[in-house]
Amino acid sequence: MKDELKKSLIISGIAILSAAVITLITGNESKSFLEAFITMLFYISLPIAMLGVALYVGKSGFFDFFAYSFKKMTKVLSRNPDYDEQTQFATNFRISERIKGNYMRPFLFSGIILTIFSITVAYTL
Prior knowledge:
By secondary structure, the chain is mostly helical. It has one domain. The protein has helices spanning 2-26, 33-60, 64-77, 81-90, 95-98, 104-124.
């Protein structure tokens, strides 16, 4: 838990710092700095949240059924019967087991929190 919180704070800090640097570099004169910063923070935090959601969906086992279906279809369509047995044992894995959950929660939490924060600040301005 402590390690996930540390990773979330690092990801959030990098997102906030990069949004500030990009806002300073672009120097949009039609908006105030705060408006441009909040807009840039939203642009950066939304892909972080989407990456966290994609990792969560992959880790939950949603795509395991599709991998099994494609493996089964390959077995049905293959012409070599020996190929069936070889590939069945060589490719017997689940996608959810391949995805490491080390960064799933930090990306998900920091992306969602930063996105909600930028939306609420944007509506209060």
